[in-house]
Design brief:
- This protein is α/β, with parallel strands linked by helices.
- Helices cover 45% and strands 13% of the residues.
- The chain has helices at residues 11-22, 28-41, 46-53, 57-70, 72-75, 90-100, 113-119, 129-138, 157-169, 239-252, 272-280, 299-311, 319-335, 346-363; strands at 175-191, 210-223, 229-234, 258-263, 284-288.
- It has a 5-stranded mixed sheet with strand order 3-2-1-4-5.
- The longest helix is centred in the C-terminal third of the chain and has 18 residues, at 346-363.
- The N and C termini lie far apart (77 Å).
Length: 364
């Protein structure tokens, strides 16, 4: 061993090193490091160790010195080495973050990593696209993404919200609560070529183009208490069709039950003839959601399921075919329906909307 390097291998260390050498799953760098120490403990000289391990003299001395200082644990880990690329200066990181929070140059709508590299080209230290992405990730910046929103401007937003949520959470006794809406302009789309089915290693296929065979409008009312849906397909969605659907609800609900309907502010729902119909059917009560609040209407969840599971990948050769598929889906849904459960705190929603309006007012 080199002058200044002196150590003894205890019996426990020898057992551990021999286990590393015997284990066929040990990394090879651990194997030859352990071999250097075992050969040194057995009295072999540096030249002999070099010949048996195939390592250079500085390498043998390095790991003898490492074992002397840190023991077996020092052989099983590598020391951290400085990167060959110098770390970014703090002012470069701050500059990238500051630029990201401003408008992108030219006619682009948002920053990209390559665009940031170009913008930083004149700085004292060059920066790569990978470094830009790393800075963005560290600071929680995602300029390529955005969230959509819509704040209701209804002056009675709070009152209407509490009214609707009250029906969901604590419906009146001897009454049935329906969440109603229309899904208009559902297209009967037929593909120009037949698709291939799903198989191992291959996705199912569908042509990107289609043949449009007409449209239909689905009138649907979701029973909040048990999750069942009353649905009817119609060609239009005027007040006349709305009254026809109300008659269908009236015929499907026992005469001794009051009916509360949650619906949006579509003009057909407030038509004079609809109001006259309500005057003749006193057990019906309408509860209008605030404007721009379709998320508050429970039946929208059913429409999302219908679109995702039946309409989006469906192939329909005619409007009749489309309507029959929707009717079958509703029957299937009603066989396994579940009550609608509202969980959000309405007071937190009202507070969030107020904060949203304050933020918009501060900008404008």
């Amino acid at each position: 061993m080199r002058t200044g390097i002196k150590f003894e291998v205890s019996s426990s260390d020898r057992l551990e090193l021999e286990e590393v050498v015997r284990n066929r799953n040990s990394p090879q760098k651990h194997v030859w490091r352990a071999s250097i120490i075992l050969l040194s403990a057995d009295g072999f000289g540096t030249i002999s160790i070099m010949l048996q391990t195939g390592k250079s003299k500085p390498c043998v001395w390095r790991w003898q010195e490492r074992f002397m200082a840190e023991g077996v644990a020092g052989l099983l880990r590598d020391k951290t080495r400085p990167s060959r690329i110098p770390a970014l200066a703090s002012h470069v990181t701050e500059r990238v973050v500051a630029l990201t929070l401003t408008d992108a140059p030219g006619e682009t709508t948002h920053w990209t990593a390559d665009l940031m590299v170009t913008a930083m080209a004149g700085e004292s230290q060059p920066i790569s696209a990978t470094a830009v992405r790393r800075i963005w990730k560290t600071h929680g910046l995602q300029p390529h993404r955005y969230r959509q929103f819509k704040l209701s401007n209804d002056p009675k937003f709070g009152d209407k919200l509490l009214d609707v949520v009250g029906l969901y959470v604590n419906p009146p006794a001897h009454a049935i609560v329906f969440s109603f809406d229309e899904k208009s302009q559902i297209q009967a789309l037929d593909r120009t070529q037949p698709g291939l089915p799903l198989k191992k290693g291959r996705l199912g296929t569908m042509t990107h183009d289609y043949k449009r065979n007409g449209t239909t409008t689905l009138f649907a009312a979701l029973n909040v208490l048990d999750g069942t849906v009353i649905g009817q397909n119609m060609q239009k969605h005027r007040h006349q069709e709305f009254i026809r659907f109300l008659n269908k609800i009236n015929a499907n609900v026992p005469a001794d039950k009051a009916i509360h309907i949650i619906l949006d502010n579509y003009a057909a729902h407030k038509h004079p003839k609809v109001r006259a119909w309500l005057d003749r059917h006193t057990r019906f009560t309408f509860h209008f959601t605030p404007t721009s609040c379709s998320w508050l209407n429970a039946v929208e969840g059913f429409f999302a399921i219908l679109t995702k599971r039946r309409l989006k990948r469906g192939v329909f050769h005619s409007v009749v075919d489309l309507q029959a598929a929707i009717n079958r889906f509703i029957v299937q849904h009603n066989q396994h329906s579940k009550p609608f459960t509202w969980t959000a705190d309405p007071n937190k929603i009202i507070a969030a909307v107020k904060r949203g309006h304050q933020a918009l007012d501060s900008i404008h």
